[in-house]
Amino acid sequence: MTAVDAERGGVRAIGAEAAPTRFARGWHCLGLSERFRDGRPHAVDAFGQRLVVFESGDGRLNVLDAYCRHMGGNLAEGTVKGDEIACPFHDWRWGGDGRCKRIPYARRVPLRARTASWTTLDQDGLLLVWNDPEGNPPPPEVAIPRIEGATRDDWTDWVWGETVVHANCREVIDNVVDMAHFFYVHYSFPTYFKNIFEGHVATQVMKGVRRPDVRPPKAGEGGRVMTGNSSVASYHGPSFMIDDLTYHYDTMDVECVLINCHYPIDANSFVLQSGIIVRRGEGMEGTAADETATKLAAFIAMGFEQDVRIWKSKTRIDNPLLCEEDGPVYQLRRWYEQFYVDVADVRPEMVERFEFELDTSRTTEAWQAEVEANIARRAAAGRPA
Amino acid sequence: MTVRRDDRLADGPGMRPVRCDRCGAGVEARKASWQQTSVQWTAAAAAACAERRAAPGGQDGGLFLGCEALRASITRAALDGALVVPDP
Ligand code: FES
Ligand SMILES: [Fe+2]
After folding, report:
1. Which of A82, A163, A285, B29 is most buried, by the most CB atoms less than 10 A from its CB?
2. For residues A68 and A70, what is the distance between their CA atoms, to the nearest angstrom?
3. Phi, psi angle pair for A184, to nearest 5°
4. ipTM
5. CATH architecture label of A153-374
6. Which CATH number does the domain A26-142 belong to among 3.40.50.11810, 2.102.10.10, 3.40.50.150, 3.30.420.10?
């Protein structure tokens, strides 16, 4: 649609351009790295292409375009031979740098025997790939920060999950600023909400309380009663969010790190992933932290399903109509756009610091009333709150 | 992917210049209510902010939650009427 879609006869029109066919510049996580370390090549559909991921003999994880430049064989169906991936069609050997190293039946490798390769990083148990339509190497200042707990004994291992979503990945980014959906879609109760965008980082600070109409205050978890949560979640680039998340109980706090990340399959689908680790310690002895991590992972998977149900049936919208209790959707999208233009075209307003603190006085009042009405309705129907 | 304009900036108060009483950093701010605040920084303002410089990681891009002195300056601007806060 053009700019003239705003209003006709007082009717608000929804404007939406097609989703971009370009894929974001930035680090993308393909999942737990150990999954790719089984000596076999793996096919991954990402950035509108089919990729092959393989561990070479030297222990490096490599990502190449899956289709062999010789006659189009699928390298993901090939075999790892030493430091190279061998094509199943005529055994051409491709190195992690994208160069054909050897053709066993030929005297020499032809000129131009180079395929597309992606810079990879195996960090904190996760395989990250650098995508850049301009083909530049990753600048150090956009490196994904280390997650301390991921390699420490006093934290659990990752509990990882993923799901394919048939929508453009901007939908998941919008969640960064969408406070109200946390109440209506995820049945949580935010009481504090602030966004900060600066450089390549977009942050959401959120505090919330337990909803007694959804989670009755039963003393299920080892006698503890949950009271609320605090979360500081930052996207480092277009697709990788680290959330320092604490669940508050009457007697203790449970510290977690939650990863919420994705990679685009194509313009209209993406793989949404989550990972969680939980800190061991007082009240979290033995296997308690591992059990909590598993439980929380199931809870997060449910949260994804709640989002997916909305995304499946909603329409793409470039001109959301906002009330003052909504977050800074436009400023978030202005930030997000920096990953879809050439580096030379990144404008100051895309990266300059912007802060937005939401007024939660009205939302808290409205939601408190709704929670109480839900409890009263259930009591009247003779069911326990 | 052209990013459009937030109608709230036209329909409610706009972003207005505010200067930090402590370091002199010039930002644009908006208050849709007494509890809501938007702050648009520039690179120059971020470089001038004394609290940001002092904060751990404030310079190397670590998370800086916000400047208290600037926050107080914005509140003062709202109380002075320099920032118009719509009636509830
Ligand atoms: S197509 Fe790959 S070796 Fe021939
Ligand atoms: Fe959501």
Report:
1. B29
2. 5
3. -80, -35
4. 0.95
5. Alpha-Beta Complex (3.90)
6. 2.102.10.10
